[in-house]
Amino acid sequence: MDFNLTYEQKMVKEMVRKFAEEEIVPVARENDVKEHFPLEIIKKMAPLGFLGALIPEKYGGAGLDFISDAIIFEEIGRADSSIRTTLSVQVHLVGLAILNWGSEEQKEKYLPRLCKGEILGCFALTEPGAGSDASNLSMTAAFTDKGWVLNGTKTWISNGGIADISIVFAQTDKSKKHEGIAAFIVEKGTHGFTTKEIKGKLGLRASNTAELIFEDCMIPKDALLGKVGDGFKVAMSALDNGRYGVASGCVGIIQGCIDACVKYAKERHQFGKPIGSFQLIQEKIARMVVDCDASRLLVYRAGGLKNKGIKNTFETSIAKYFASESAVRAATDAIQIFGAYGCSNEYPVERYLRDAKVATIYEGTSEIQKLIIGYHTLGIKAFG
Ligand code: COS
Fold first, then answer.
1. CB of 372 sitting under 6 A from ligand 1
2. How far is the CA of 8 from the centre of ligand 1 (A)?
């Protein structure tokens, strides 16, 4: 077990930090206030390899390992979780799902364009009536001579309103439950497919979130990703990677809280001394440091397994649960340290709290992560 980053990983960290400080941090506050999705920043990330971090070079990606990937997502998460979310969906939920489940034609058609940022993707699993109970889909896919016909609604879909391709999950035979689910790649502009943006979110306000509506939407036969019946496994295996991205981003939030608090606690004077000299302030910062280290190590443990191709649902759920809850705690304490200033968007800590809270909910709530951990520990399913 080696806890040191390689020379290449240190270089990745330095490069992403520089990009984030120069391109993302200066506009994060304004994008949050205006709920502006900064496509221009996403496009700038493509030549640096961020949009295809884990995709093999053969398909136009950077071919990086999962620890380097965690470093990228930590650094982007430290700067702006909205952008980290967009990137996570592109790389972890869409790119890797196509890499792992797609036909050679689908990989060649979509992966290079996803890596170059020519197209953006979204992952449409959640429905108004199917969130945690993800296999209970109402959306249907009917097979006809001409192709598949999709009917139903997806909601809370990150990138949904701006995506050029959507990975959509639908039920082909309700009697088969999760074994009837299939995944499809649906292209923007397909007749019968419309989107409606969701505004007014608590956090991740600069990310794009939408409802996807399918009304007799006809797609070709070769839009199927994997086989009929593979859909639920496509979704769950993609979420193993998506949750890893969320956990990495939350490490970034905690690190951001530490960096902001250390600076502020040295500058801010009360009772004739810097507030950093008070034990109650040091206690909060010490807890953030421990939570940050623990979260990062949990992420790296899951990443180490992913690098070896070993199943890691349990370890990824632990990392996602611990890092997201720790990020909420760190941001709450950071606001307390900043006092009234912490309640203002002059500093990033209130945005960190709003964004961290979302991370305890999307891609599987903390409760679902605990039930996955419980199942792996006890061998007894609390769900289904
Ligand atoms: N990778 C690959 N396959 C997986 C898997 C994974 N991580 N997890 C489960 N599967 C497979 C199982 O092996 C099983 O396959 P078989 O039918 O061949 O045995 C199948 O999927 C069903 O598994 P299970 O019975 O455990 O599924 P449940 O319906 O009980 O659901 C939970 C399990 C609750 C864990 C799942 O529905 C879940 O993660 N819900 C949260 C969804 C979520 O995160 N939504 C957020 C929005 S998406 S951004």
1. yes
2. 35
Residues of the chain with CATH 1.20.140.10: 233-378
Q: Is 363 a catalytic residue?
A: yes
SS (H, E, C) 236-275: HHHHHHHHHHHHHHHHHHHHHHHHHHHHHHHHCEECCEEH
CATH code of 122-228, in short, is 2.40.110.10
β-strand pairing of 209-219 with 193-197: antiparallel
Give the whole-angstrom CA distance, residue 238 versus residue 89. 10
Q: 41 C-alpha vs ligand 1 centroid, how far in Å?
A: 34
Atom 10, ligand 1: which residue's CA is nearest? Answer: 233
| HEC readout, 301-364 | HHHHHHHCCCCCHHHHHHHHHHHHHHHHHHHHHHHHHHHHHHHCCCCCHHHHHHHHHHHCCCCC
Q: Is 333 in the pocket of ligand 1 (CB under 6 A)?
A: no
> Going residue by residue through the chain (384 aa), what tens digit of pLDDT does each one get?
788 999 999 999 999 999 999 999 999 999 999 999 999 999 999 999 999 999 999 999 999 999 999 999 999 999 999 999 999 999 999 999 999 999 999 999 999 999 999 999 999 999 999 999 999 999 999 999 999 999 999 999 999 999 999 999 999 999 999 999 999 999 999 999 999 999 999 999 999 999 999 999 999 999 999 999 999 999 999 999 999 999 999 999 999 999 999 999 999 999 999 999 999 999 999 999 999 999 999 999 999 999 999 999 999 999 999 999 999 999 999 999 999 999 999 999 999 999 999 999 999 999 999 999 999 999 999 986
Which of 139, 18, 160, 143 has its CA nearest to residue 75? 18
Instruction: Say yes or no: CB of residue 159 within 6 Å of ligand 1.
Output: no
Could you say which architecture CATH assigns to the domain 7-120? Orthogonal Bundle (1.10)
Distance 241 CA to ligand 1 centre (A): 13
What is the pTM (predicted TM-score) of this model? 0.97
